[in-house]
């Protein structure tokens, strides 16, 4: 019997590097977005596509990406995905129009959808000893979580001292190192016989979500009752309904529907989607608020988000991880979502002159703790007790609900913010006593209204956890190794 690969820890380095790049791109571009918007002339209504095009492609194709890795082989998929991700990043860095940047971000999401499940699967097959596997996944999870913080700081540094384009170009050298390391250190067998790709399922599911997000985005310039907007929503609902019908009949479905039949698991998927709807929208607004309203530099903005990341890590790794063996999952998820909602409500009191230390920082800390309390039980409960053959698809579905929820939330809340902000300004333009900073006041008003909606959605998330996640005894089943949480930040 062959012993463990003597170079397996080097393999971990390059697997984690690949995952770091995927997580990094979820946050690094947020800080650079105001600079990119000014440079490329994006409208306030369209700017959200820089974020949603990535998360939509990533979340919508994640399940298909796992099947591709099974079919083509994980190592080969990692190498091709790294090369594709680097090429898409270079294309985005060279963008001269908003459409080019949106397309590049979507391509990044496509290759990230193949890269993430392949990296996790390689980690599982590389580390076969249970003790070593737990250590490896602990390191992997820490690096993945740290990628969000690195993204905030790196985005600020690059935007301030170079240009926003380097937030995309930086992926090229990382990918080059990753490809070299993958070719030298990673080992994987051939693709799995009998693996099939549910391409119709991927097109139906992803297409339905894209139409819904497109409808949310177009509601800003056209209005919610515009025929194109209502047609987009109707088309999205129809495609998703057909997707469910197809999954019942496909030989190898993209999402086996029996995974959703467990009440606790379905509750976790819904809770995660609702939670990140509010969180992704908050990132967009706070980035613009700190830079455009309070006048923060990109670097200072990135540093301002670090307490949020630290609070998520504290709530997840220190508090939730210690309490989960003793309490039912919803005993952490419900107060976690309510705590995040309180943080959001504090932000609804923002003005054009708010102080970070006393009015912004407490809200970020509360939101971080609340999200951290929720993430751990969601992943643990959603993946506990699943059949081994469903472990991968279950963990991928949690991540998919996170990315899709973030896409919908960013588009929906950005539309709410821009429309209410514009209405606020229009209603006061003829007022002879209007303030000199009326535009800034209108912008902040739009942000606070949208964040109020986000707080209400967080409350809905707490209700879904409380009513659907009914497991009363501690779930002592160890989460699948393929269920390492992908941070929403």
Q: What would you say this structure looks like, in words?
A:
The protein has helices at residues 8-24, 28-40, 49-72, 74-93, 98-126, 130-161, 166-169, 171-185, 199-222, 227-249, 258-261, 263-293, 298-304, 306-323, 330-347, 356-383, 391-426, 438-468. By secondary structure, it is mainly α. The chain folds into two domains: 7-198, MFS general substrate transporter like domains (Growth Hormone, Chain: A, Up-down Bundle); 257-489, MFS general substrate transporter like domains (Growth Hormone, Chain: A, Up-down Bundle), CATH 1.20.1250.20. It is globular. The model is unreliable at 474-485 (pLDDT under 50).
The count of strands amounts to 0
Main sheet makeup: none
Q: Radius of gyration in whole Å, from Cα?
A: 22 Å
Helix/strand structural class = mainly alpha
Q: In what range is the share of β-strand residues?
A: under 5%
CATH architecture of the largest domain: Up-down Bundle
CATH topology value of the largest domain: Growth Hormone, Chain: A
Name the CATH superfamily classification of the largest domain.
Answer: MFS general substrate transporter like domains
Summed up, the domain count is: 2
Order of helices and strands: HHHHHHHHHHHHHHHHHH
Quick check: average pLDDT? Answer: 81
Through-space gap between termini: 43 Å
Tally of DSSP helical segments: 18
Helix content: over 70%
Large-scale geometry: globular
Please give the CATH class of the largest domain: Mainly Alpha
């Amino acid at each position: 019997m062959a012993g463990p690969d003597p170079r397996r820890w080097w393999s971990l380095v390059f697997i984690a590097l690949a995952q770091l790049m995927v997580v990094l791109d979820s946050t690094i571009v947020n800080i650079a977005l105001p600079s990119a918007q000014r440079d490329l002339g994006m409208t306030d209504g369209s700017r959200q596509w820089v974020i949603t095009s990535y998360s939509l492609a990533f979340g919508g194709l994640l399940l298909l990406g796992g099947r591709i890795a099974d079919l083509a082989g994980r190592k080969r998929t990692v190498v091709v995905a790294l090369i594709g991700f680097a090429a898409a990043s270079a294309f985005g860095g060279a963008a001269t129009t908003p459409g080019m940047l949106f397309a590049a971000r979507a391509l990044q999401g496509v290759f990230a959808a193949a890269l993430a499940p392949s990296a996790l699967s390689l980690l599982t097959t590389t580390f076969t000893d249970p003790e070593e596997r737990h250590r490896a996944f602990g390191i992997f999870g820490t690096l993945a979580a740290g990628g969000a913080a690195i993204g905030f700081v790196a985005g600020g540094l690059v935007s301030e001292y170079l240009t926003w384009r380097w937030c995309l170009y930086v992926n090229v050298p990382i990918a080059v190192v990753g490809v070299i390391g993958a070719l030298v250190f990673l080992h994987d067998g051939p693709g799995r016989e009998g693996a099939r790709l549910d391409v119709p399922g991927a097109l139906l599911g992803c297409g339905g979500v894209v139409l819904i997000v497109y409808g949310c985005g177009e509601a800003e310039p056209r209005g919610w009752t515009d025929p194109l907007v209502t047609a987009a929503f109707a088309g999205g609902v129809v495609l998703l309904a057909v997707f469910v019908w197809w999954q019942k009949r496909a030989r190898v479905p993209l999402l086996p529907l029996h995974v959703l039949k467990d009440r606790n698991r379905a509750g976790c998927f819904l809770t995660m989607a609702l939670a990140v709807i509010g969180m992704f929208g908050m990132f967009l607004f706070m980035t613009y608020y700190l830079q455009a309203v309070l006048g923060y530099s990109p670097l200072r903005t990135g540093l301002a988000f670090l307490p949020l990341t630290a609070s998520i890590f504290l709530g997840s790794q220190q508090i939730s991880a210690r309490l989960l063996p003793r309490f039912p999952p919803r005993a952490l998820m419900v107060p976690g979502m309510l705590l995040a909602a309180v943080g959001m409500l504090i932000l609804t009191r923002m003005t054009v002159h708010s102080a970070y230390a006393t009015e912004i920082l407490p809200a970020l800390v509360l939101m971080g703790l609340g999200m951290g309390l929720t993430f751990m039980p969601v992943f643990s409960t959603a993946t506990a007790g699943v059949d081994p053959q469903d472990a991968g698809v279950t963990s991928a579905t949690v991540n998919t609900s996170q990315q899709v929820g973030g896409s919908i939330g960013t588009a929906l809340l950005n539309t709410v913010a821009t429309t209410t902000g514009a209405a606020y300004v229009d209603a006061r333009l003829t007022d002879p006593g209007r303030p000199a900073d009326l535009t800034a006041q209108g912008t902040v008003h739009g942000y606070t209204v949208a964040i109020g909606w986000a707080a209400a959605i967080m409350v809905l998330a707490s209700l879904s956890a409380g009513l659907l996640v009914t497991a009363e005894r501690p779930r002592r089943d160890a989460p699948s190794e393929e269920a390492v949480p992908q941070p929403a930040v």
